Structures are given as C-alpha cells and as structure tokens.
Amino acid sequence: MIVGLKEVLAEGKARGIAVGAFNTPNLECLTAVLEAAQTLDVPVIVAHVQLHEAVAPLAYIGPTMLALAERSRVKVCVHLDHGEDIEYLKRAIDMGFSSVMIDCSTLPYEENAAYTRTVVDYAHAHGVDVEAELGALPQREGGTGSVAADPTALYTKPALAADFVARTGVDALAIAFGTAHGIYKTAPILNMDIISAVRERVDVPLVMHGGSGISDAEYREVIRRGIGKINYFSYMSAAGYAAAKRVVASGEGTFFHDLTRAAKDAMKENAMRTLRVFSGLD
C-alpha cells in the first residue's frame, strides 16, 4: 500500500528501526526492493531521482513504481528524491508520488530555506510530504563531482537546524556528517555527534544520504543516534552489475533476460541484507 513519508517513518520510529530508501530506476531494482521488504515485513521507500531522468524517464518509471507499490503487502512510500526544481517535483506530485525531496543544499542558507518553503507550500497543499537537506555531501547524487578538499566544511551546522525546520515546514531533514554518494574510494569518517546535536534541536525525522558502503556497526550507531531514513542504492546496483558480468563471463547466458534475472536476484539479496541491518534483524 502507498503511504506518505511521515507515515512510513512513524512506523519505523515505533518499531525502533530505520526505513530504507532505495532508488529504483528500472524494473529489476524496483521488484528486488519490494520483494525484499515484503519478505522481511518491513516498511520501505522506493525513489526516483531527477538525475535518473535520462536513464528512466519519470513518465515511464513513475506509474510502474506507483502500481507495484499499491499492490505491496507492506507500507511503501513512493518518493521523488533529489528534486532540483519545483516543476519536476510538481510532475511527480501530480502523478501520485506520496513524498518529494527538494535539494537546494548547495545554495546559500537563505536561498535554500526560501526555495524549500515554496516547495513545501505546494506539496502540502496537495497532501504530499517533503524532505529537504541542510548541509551537503561532497559528491552529488550518482557519485558525480570531486571530493571537497575539506569535506567538513559541508557538514550540517546543528545551530541552524531548528530555524531551518521552523521556516520551511519540512517533514524530514537530511543532514551531512561524513557520508557521500556513490562508491567510496576510501572509508568514510563519520561525525556522529552532528546527528545527536541536530536530534536535540528538531523533532522531525532525520535522514542519511549516501548510505551505501558503511559498516553494520555504523548503521546501528546512526540509527541509535536518531537517523530514521537511510538512502541506499550504489552498492545494491553494483551487486546487480557484478552478477550480470558473471553470467557473461561464464558463457551460460544466451538472452538479455538472463542478465536481468541474475542482476535482480543479486540486488534482492543485497537489499534483504541491508534491510535486515536497518531493521535490527542482524
């Protein structure tokens, strides 16, 4: 069933777990994630990123996400992630997405707050929840962009969090404390104290972007400190790619669907393991 972001995160909070949010730019990703969540009986968020428009146009993948989420036995939030402009977000809202994220994190603080408020006003008028970001990750969505010379300069400033939430009216807040999008070339160093400091100042759910590639112990610690939503995609997608490569290398596959089936099974296994950690089952 499709629910909003607030509802799915409220269930996660009641169960003492973090809800996984997975980018699903193709049918294999989407079915892998939904089957994993239903097997474990945990709520989940499936997301389309504006960056993936060239890979999977919203007009094609959006209705598919909505149709399969509606049929799911668990609560599913259908989310537009890292929206870059309000017109794109409006398309997702009009289509039936139950939440959106506006990403103005690279803008100056005042501009971020003002544009986010505009998105919140529109989305809330249509019954849709909104996530925004304060602070920025050193690599953009998709792992693009160079790593900053001083990544700590991009970290969320806890002193601004309460003002940002009050001025924008957002339903969830993504914060930056050391993670990055994409595949890590070196192990990330996380400043967990930022989570605690923001948690003390705001009562909306907190979100960790760049959630792939950190240790199970770190997942458990960020959840303990107050993270309620973890975005995860890169390492799941890489698992699917590796599985498809193995089929090609083995010479056992003949058709394209041999590759997609192997990729989907590998991504489901990866999503299952990840959701088990997020849900305290491992």
Which range best describes the helical content: under 10%, 10-25%, 25-40%, 40-55%, 55-70% or over 70%?
40-55%
* Number of E strands: 8
The proportion of residues in beta strands is 5-15%
Overall number of domains: 1
- Gyration radius, rounded: 18 Å
**The named CATH superfamily:** Aldolase class I
Architecture overview:
The chain is α/β, with parallel strands linked by helices and 282 residues long. The chain has a single domain (5-236), classed as TIM Barrel (Alpha-Beta Barrel). Helices cover 49% and strands 15% of the residues. It contains 10 helices and 8 strands. It has helices at residues 5-15, 27-40, 58-71, 86-95, 109-125, 158-168, 192-201, 216-225, 234-250, 256-278, and strands at residues 19-23, 44-49, 76-83, 99-102, 129-134, 172-175, 206-208, 227-232. An 8-stranded parallel beta barrel has the order 1-2-3-4-5-6-7-8, surrounded by 10 helices. β7, α8 and β8 form a beta-alpha-beta unit. α2 packs parallel to α3, α2 packs parallel to α10 and α4 (86-95) runs parallel beside α5 (109-125). The longest helix has 23 residues, at 256-278. The radius of gyration is 18 Å and the shape is globular. The two termini are 26 Å apart.
